[in-house]
């Protein structure tokens, strides 16, 4: 089967072309190749132009770049950002998947049109996260960037690449999928070694990404370390807003490729070329990443149980202030997400990473999520331990345009 490469004339035909499963539609994002920042950094939102990717007309950008700057700090180190809003509308920021040491929500401040605000927080977890405009219409286009929180100590991988995947419909209506702001970029990995690839799905679409490499292991999901495992057929599925970290074994001579799967065949996202001296490639799974201290067990017998029925036709403005309930710090919560709609949804759960439970019993998948896919006319159940006091949001979004279908909050009290 041939591999399609992106150009303005050879693109997918939209979400229907990526009907890999009932929960898999198109979309992929890759982070910009900006230098990491350890000190205060300015994020300046303003209108700009990207005719080769976004078509004619203006588009909102951070720092006139696609994507916005890559922010990088060590676990436990403070992050300070000055947000300057040059747009004609208020700007809110979401720091997806980020837990803070103080228990405060860094997504809360709204920056008035023409205004400025300072945001400072200390990420609690090492991992792959991202920031984006709270307005889905701005976020799904370009107003977004990656946040990488590095583990303590030396880097676990010789090569550590962020792939920030975005999607743009040109004038033809057929989407383009830039990675780090480029179409099918070439990145580097160690010859006969392993490269860490941080995939961030900044599109409003469900993805299935395949990796052509000697061996591939999933090492983290939605920013949280996972016991390394080899995905079936070297394919991973990523919900809108989700992230997957891969350890990819490189061939000493041949490049590796990442592609979106579609009904028309694979669509190339990026090429990873081997560099440096060859040798014997590592075998078997890599060592797990250091834990972020999430609980190994979730006792569900005495859990608080909440249900979020995602009502069709409801507006987030009317639902965002409606609470599902309140729990004390330390209690386990089981949350049922019920989707009566004809389309799958992506549900973002702020404040706490969650485990996806089995549909029929209280077993769980061995990894954590902050973004959960819910099938059309179906449901999903998740569980988490309430550890951080505050009021947190749960937002259901529709694939294709990331429109907020419904929202709720939940409270955690000390």
TrEMBL record:
<dbReference type="Pfam" id="PF07731">
    <property type="entry name" value="Cu-oxidase_2"/>
</dbReference>
<dbReference type="Pfam" id="PF07732">
    <property type="entry name" value="Cu-oxidase_3"/>
</dbReference>
<dbReference type="InterPro" id="IPR011707">
    <property type="entry name" value="Cu-oxidase-like_N"/>
</dbReference>
<feature type="signal peptide">
    <location>
        <begin position="1"/>
        <end position="26"/>
    </location>
</feature>
<dbReference type="InterPro" id="IPR045087">
    <property type="entry name" value="Cu-oxidase_fam"/>
</dbReference>
<protein>
    <submittedName>
        <fullName>FtsP/CotA-like multicopper oxidase with cupredoxin domain</fullName>
    </submittedName>
</protein>
<keyword id="KW-0732">Signal</keyword>
<dbReference type="InterPro" id="IPR006311">
    <property type="entry name" value="TAT_signal"/>
</dbReference>
<feature type="domain" description="Plastocyanin-like">
    <location>
        <begin position="326"/>
        <end position="392"/>
    </location>
</feature>
<dbReference type="InterPro" id="IPR008972">
    <property type="entry name" value="Cupredoxin"/>
</dbReference>
<dbReference type="InterPro" id="IPR011706">
    <property type="entry name" value="Cu-oxidase_C"/>
</dbReference>
<feature type="domain" description="Plastocyanin-like">
    <location>
        <begin position="57"/>
        <end position="151"/>
    </location>
</feature>
